TrEMBL record, chains A, B, C, D:
The keyword DNA-binding applies. GO terms for molecular function: DNA binding. Residues 16-76 form the HTH tetR-type domain. The keyword Repressor applies. Gene3D superfamilies: Homeodomain-like (1.10.10.60), Tetracycline Repressor, domain 2 (1.10.357.10). This is TetR/AcrR family transcriptional regulator. Residues 39-58 bind DNA. Keywords: DNA-binding, Repressor. It comes from the Bacteria.
Amino acid sequence: MVKPIDSSIKDENLIKQRREELQKGAVSLFKQKGFHRATTREIAKAAGFSIGTLYEYIRKKEDVLFLVCDAIYDEVKARMESVINIQESTREALHEAVKSYFQLMDDMQDEVLVLYQELKALPKDAQEYVLGKEKEMLQLLERVIQDSYPSLTEKELSLISNNIFIQGQMWGFRRWILQKEFTLEEYTDLQFELLQTQLGKRAIQ
Amino acid sequence: MVKPIDSSIKDENLIKQRREELQKGAVSLFKQKGFHRATTREIAKAAGFSIGTLYEYIRKKEDVLFLVCDAIYDEVKARMESVINIQESTREALHEAVKSYFQLMDDMQDEVLVLYQELKALPKDAQEYVLGKEKEMLQLLERVIQDSYPSLTEKELSLISNNIFIQGQMWGFRRWILQKEFTLEEYTDLQFELLQTQLGKRAIQ
Amino acid sequence: MVKPIDSSIKDENLIKQRREELQKGAVSLFKQKGFHRATTREIAKAAGFSIGTLYEYIRKKEDVLFLVCDAIYDEVKARMESVINIQESTREALHEAVKSYFQLMDDMQDEVLVLYQELKALPKDAQEYVLGKEKEMLQLLERVIQDSYPSLTEKELSLISNNIFIQGQMWGFRRWILQKEFTLEEYTDLQFELLQTQLGKRAIQ
Amino acid sequence: MVKPIDSSIKDENLIKQRREELQKGAVSLFKQKGFHRATTREIAKAAGFSIGTLYEYIRKKEDVLFLVCDAIYDEVKARMESVINIQESTREALHEAVKSYFQLMDDMQDEVLVLYQELKALPKDAQEYVLGKEKEMLQLLERVIQDSYPSLTEKELSLISNNIFIQGQMWGFRRWILQKEFTLEEYTDLQFELLQTQLGKRAIQ
DNA sequence: TATGAATGAGTTTTCATTCAT
DNA sequence: GATGAATGAAAACTCATTCAT
């Protein structure tokens, strides 16, 4: 299910390029002031073009938010896929996956923050579309875990994946408390240790 | 440390009462449309007074947001304190505490959602003030856990408390996925089981 | 021709007293912020009573301005009359009169400033009423001059009185320039010297 | 020393042109109702553009007042300079200068009135900037007088210039009394006569 | 395609005035 | 007579969106 945004521009490549510029500028702007406080003029400026040009590539201000959220999810997802080795499904692979995921969440803290705070400002249908991508990411995690710990029940698997998922996001989202107490490495190691305890216990049941 | 909001009304009791009305109305409004999409006129109406009266009790629209966030935290905190039995510190007490906390988060889903989405719209100092209350809640959780499992390291204690804390919030915040797969009871039980595994392992170390 | 302001209070003495308080407070307020920038709440506060009470003694905000302008003129006029000795009409008396008038304008700079800046904000009829008082003051000056220099034509008399009159007001109104170059004494002496030249010349014609 | 007003318009020429339109409309509006009673919508309308457009060329309502005061002073000053012949410094030139200045004050009565009433509504720094222009005008007068009557002391020169200056302004400001008794010609002639008496006396000292 | 000036509906905020206590 | 809470009309100002160039 795609959710394309109308544009009066014909050249598809140009659209792609401009929207990328737009998205980059908008994220850094939304980081600072959030979607609602950012004006379309500021968005255009941050993207490097005029207000008139902005409206050649979107129809409403809300479209910018959609574009941004969509792009962030795409990037997170792409990087997760590139990093998670599904072929290899040892327990070591899980460790690597979690480490890579947490590292990714550290790299993309600001983007994730924007996502958390502004997603609800999207219209319901756009929200659902974007959250679909999150589900795919969750499934990616689930698969890695299941490969290493096949004896988990479906609910255990689902819950544990969810927990890891949000623990990664929280590293950035709750940085004001977590990053004062832990380095990324400490956080990663300790969370993984706790995870292993849970999994280990369950694996031998 | 208090953060009072100026009012031109002299009767302190009236201020208290009206602000409570205001806060009640505003929460239910923000649930629907969020802070930014709600107009001051709508806020006044939702609280049951005229726009003029609204501005007798606040100075800026932002003040409403502060009032709301502050009140939510206060309520959550008060209910947590009333529910967590610090006297009794058996492991059963921890179970009760976690169950009560998750129940509370279920009851106050909408409020927590509002908090998550709008907190960043507050000025920095108000944000810090409000987040201070969150820290106190975290400490409450920490204390209960520590009483039952005194051998945990400081970092383990901190991380585990954080995990429980956000797992409670996520129950409401990520309802679109969790509440489709779990009932509150299932979610609570399974999370507590996982928690016990972690704690049990560590307790006997 | 009187221009009374309605009041719901019966006790005439109380009205008089309260309006005096009001007028005092208002002048000092208008000095700072001008009539338009001063709110009725501030006016009430400056006068030492509540907004409700304020409206027992006036009907509209504009009434305050009228009261103030009226009171200032009354005071200026009363002090001029007390100071100008009409009985004695030597040329020395003129010197005394001018000196006293300039001193008076120095004492009441702020009041005169308020008058200059806000009089035009009054409705036409109130303006006319108040300006009537100014004419009486001018006539006072005219009479003193005429007594000493009876050979002046009517127009000369009128113009010279006007000039003295505004030179007095300017001392306060244009203080930003005059009071940097002159002391009050210097200003008075030099203006009077110039005046004498004019009068002397004309007296012997 | 300039005091520029921010605008979101890029075309400098357009800014100049629009602000001129704005200033023209605003003066005629302020003449009628004064600055405070004029709404921004009325100002926009008087200038011939929409409220949105108005705010493309100014930041605050106050900016309009500054624009207006500044423009009036500039016009008065330009016309004074064009009319006062500094080359030629006979006593006849002084007569011409005074006549021209009084004529100018007659032409611009309304503008001068606006200036008198609204200048104090400007922020202090803008006031000082504008009053700087008034000083330059005073110096212009001083120079003309000094050229014809070089033996005057500095204080005499300063005071006499000031007197002429305000006599011109008062012609418009106190029209309710002066213009009932004098024609402009009579006023000019008589004031000049009085002036000459003073100067003549002093010149031969 | 790109630009940016123009627009006006909609928003926040103020404040003179009223009126129940 | 005094008080001050309540009111809402009206004000300043913003900003998404359009459209002529």
